[in-house]
Amino acid sequence: MDQRSVLIIEDEQPIVEILKYNLEKEGYAVQAAYDGAEGLSLALSQNPDLILLDVMLPKMDGFEVCRKIREQAATPIIMLTARDEEVDKVLGLELGADDYMTKPFSIRELTARVKANLRRTTIDKAQAAPAEASEVIVSGDLVINIERYEVQKRGAVVDITLREFELLKFLAMQPDKIFSRESLLENVWGYEYYGDVRTVDVTVRRLREKIEDDPSLPRYIVTKRGVGYYFNKA
Ligand code: CA
C-alpha cells in the first residue's frame, strides 16, 4: 500500500513536532505549514490524504482555509480547535470539515481519529476500483451511485463531502431502519469511544440542505424524535 500523507497546518511549533513525530512513527508521510496561507497552498498543490487544521492561524484562519480547500477538494479535514466552544466545532463542520478535536487532545486519540478518517477513504478507493455492475440506489429524485461516489438530484450532481456521502450511503442502504446517533457515529465515523453525537446532527443538517427540497421538512433523511435518523425510501 502507498504511504499515506498527512498535512499539518498549525502555527504552534511544539504541537507540530509532537504530531509529526507520532504520525511518522505510525508510517505516515508528514508535511507541515505554519500559517493559513502556506497551508492552503500546500493542501492544493500536494493533495495530501488527510489534513489536520488548526483554527487560530496567522495570515488566514482555519475556517477560511477549510472553506477554500472544500471549494476544490474532498480531502478529509480534522479541525484542531483551541477552545471548547460550541461555535467553533459547529462552524468547522458547517464549512465542510469532517471532524474536530479540542485541544488539549491525547496523541493516542488523535492518531485513532486520523486512522478512522483515512480508513474511510481507503475503503472507498478500493471499492471504487473494480468496474463491476454499478450499485445504484434510486429514490424519488435522488440517485446515489455507490461506486462512483456520486449523488444526483434531478439529474444534477450534488456537491457532497466524503462524510456526507458515507452517512447518506449508510442510511440509504438500509432504508426505513432507524439508527441512533451513537450507532451512526460508530458505523459512519468509525469511532467506538470517541466523538460527539452532535457531529452527526451537523452532518445530517448539511446533507439535508443539499438533497432535500425543504431541509426543514425532510423527505429523505428523517428524524425519529428521541431515537435517531432513518432514510425514508417511500
Ligand atoms: Ca494556533
From TrEMBL:
<feature type="DNA-binding region" description="OmpR/PhoB-type">
    <location>
        <begin position="134"/>
        <end position="233"/>
    </location>
</feature>
<keyword id="KW-0597">Phosphoprotein</keyword>
<dbReference type="InterPro" id="IPR001867">
    <property type="entry name" value="OmpR/PhoB-type_DNA-bd"/>
</dbReference>
<dbReference type="GO" id="GO:0006355">
    <property type="term" value="P:regulation of DNA-templated transcription"/>
</dbReference>
<keyword id="KW-0805">Transcription regulation</keyword>
<dbReference type="InterPro" id="IPR039420">
    <property type="entry name" value="WalR-like"/>
</dbReference>
<keyword id="KW-0238">DNA-binding</keyword>
<comment type="function">
    <text>May play the central regulatory role in sporulation. It may be an element of the effector pathway responsible for the activation of sporulation genes in response to nutritional stress. Spo0A may act in concert with spo0H (a sigma factor) to control the expression of some genes that are critical to the sporulation process.</text>
</comment>
<dbReference type="InterPro" id="IPR011006">
    <property type="entry name" value="CheY-like_superfamily"/>
</dbReference>
<feature type="domain" description="OmpR/PhoB-type">
    <location>
        <begin position="134"/>
        <end position="233"/>
    </location>
</feature>
<protein>
    <recommendedName>
        <fullName>Stage 0 sporulation protein A homolog</fullName>
    </recommendedName>
</protein>
<keyword id="KW-0804">Transcription</keyword>
<dbReference type="GO" id="GO:0000976">
    <property type="term" value="F:transcription cis-regulatory region binding"/>
</dbReference>
<feature type="domain" description="Response regulatory">
    <location>
        <begin position="5"/>
        <end position="118"/>
    </location>
</feature>
<dbReference type="InterPro" id="IPR001789">
    <property type="entry name" value="Sig_transdc_resp-reg_receiver"/>
</dbReference>
<feature type="modified residue" description="4-aspartylphosphate">
    <location>
        <position position="54"/>
    </location>
</feature>
<dbReference type="Pfam" id="PF00486">
    <property type="entry name" value="Trans_reg_C"/>
</dbReference>
<dbReference type="GO" id="GO:0000156">
    <property type="term" value="F:phosphorelay response regulator activity"/>
</dbReference>
<dbReference type="InterPro" id="IPR036388">
    <property type="entry name" value="WH-like_DNA-bd_sf"/>
</dbReference>
<dbReference type="GO" id="GO:0032993">
    <property type="term" value="C:protein-DNA complex"/>
</dbReference>
<dbReference type="Pfam" id="PF00072">
    <property type="entry name" value="Response_reg"/>
</dbReference>
<dbReference type="InterPro" id="IPR016032">
    <property type="entry name" value="Sig_transdc_resp-reg_C-effctor"/>
</dbReference>
<dbReference type="GO" id="GO:0005829">
    <property type="term" value="C:cytosol"/>
</dbReference>
<keyword id="KW-0902">Two-component regulatory system</keyword>
